[in-house]
Amino acid sequence: MRGTPKAISLPRRLICDLMRASMDVPFVSLSRSLHIRPLLEARAGAAAPAGWAAMFVKAFALVARDEPILRTVYAKWPRPTLYELPKSVALVAIARVEDGEECVLPQRIAAPETMAMAAIDAEIRRGKTAPIEDVPMFRKIMRATRLPWPLRRLSWAIGLNFGRQRGNWFGSFAVSSVAAYGGGELHPVTPGPFIVSYGVVEGDQTIHVVIRWDHRVTDAAPIARVLTRLEQVLNTEIAAELRAAGPKPIRAVGT
């Protein structure tokens, strides 16, 4: 059978490199439906509510502020160690279309726990619409992806295996979801150490959340507690920030 050979684009080459870097990570996952009625009520009353990705980025970062294990990465060099980062760094999977091809690029958001949710949302939206060269993380990762294979492999090895560089290149956690396209239980793969995915809001005011993590960093019991804490933060601090941003204007009813 004769097919048509196609060149691998830079965004697709990035995914190939990412999958190769993820192969040796011993991931396990835990999923749970979170009850988020207070969050939904606050979001429904907000004039310009942040997107779901922004809410999960800030909520997870707020939990990680008090849970150092969520800011810990596994690093191999100069010797295998667990390296605790001083702050969270989120990588958000951004779906884009480049040169007619659908692709995913990682938008980096440093210290989201200190940012207003509107600012986090603006960074995510900028990653969806701005030219690649105008987004620092996209520009950086595409520059590395253009390198010849030996140099590319070296740059990935440095970014993956030194604790400080892990935070710069791959962050302390990632957020990815297909909820905007109809949902589904997504189990994404990255070099880790933590990946958060969420589904669509169900009729019983719950949302399904999956956390995948590097088992070298922590175990299931702490992650179970993290999911409980994540539910609390979404319904309290995140809901409060939505309410503080201002209610929807009341439309006058004609008589």
From TrEMBL:
Which of UniProt's keywords are assigned here? Acyltransferase, Transferase
The UniProt record lists the keyword Acyltransferase: yes
What's a Gene Ontology MF term here? acyltransferase activity
Q: Which InterPro entries match?
A: CAT-like_dom_sf
Q: Which organism is it from?
A: Bradyrhizobium nitroreducens
Domain of life, per lineage: Bacteria
Name of the molecule in the record: Acyltransferase
UniProt keyword Acyltransferase present: yes
